[in-house]
């Protein structure tokens, strides 16, 4: 997925989420837990990405960090962490997206702004990406994170 590819609209209503930290998805998790593991496998296989415990999320969150120092940019949450996967029962993820893609993802129903980003305490481009419910949604969510990774890894 590239920034030039229009996102499909996510079907159905947005999931319920908490309005503050920890920012958690409360419903619409995947019925098949293998969807979550497929997403993790794809994301942690991206070039230049290393899995680490998140430095900013709940215990058990798995962070996507850069192996090599990348450019200092608002596309990082903390250090070189640009996304993290939340543990069960949540299964959503937070990611720093390029501004244009962030707007498109929110408008198409795939994401919502992080409540702390709304307060200006973290970069405004950090969003919650809703947990993919099936293989088609898995492709979209993985594509959104991959678009960010492609900008960060030389």
TrEMBL record:
- Pfam families from the UniProt entry: Luciferase
Q: From the record, what ranges are coiled-coil?
A: none
Domain named Luciferase: residues: 79-147
Q: According to the lineage, what is the superkingdom?
A: Bacteria
Ranges where the record places region Disordered? 1-32
Ranges annotated as biased composition (Low complexity): 1-22
Protein name (record): Phospholipase
Protein source organism: Knoellia koreensis
């Amino acid at each position: 997925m590239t920034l030039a590819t229009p996102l499909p609209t996510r079907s159905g209503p947005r999931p319920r989420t908490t309005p503050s930290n920890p920012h958690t998805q409360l419903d619409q998790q995947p019925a098949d837990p293998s969807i979550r593991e497929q997403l993790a496998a794809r994301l942690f296989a991206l070039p230049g990405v290393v899995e680490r415990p998140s430095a900013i999320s709940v215990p058990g969150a798995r962070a996507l960090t850069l192996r090599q120092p990348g450019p200092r940019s608002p596309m990082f949450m903390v250090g070189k962490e640009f996304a993290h996967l939340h543990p069960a029962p949540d299964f959503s993820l937070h990611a720093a997206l390029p501004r244009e893609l962030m707007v498109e993802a929110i408008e198409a129903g795939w994401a919502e702004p992080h409540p702390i980003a709304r307060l200006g305490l973290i970069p405004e481009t950090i969003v919650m990406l809703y947990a993919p419910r099936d293989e088609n949604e898995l492709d979209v969510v993985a594509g959104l994170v991959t678009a960010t990774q492609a900008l960060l890894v030389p």
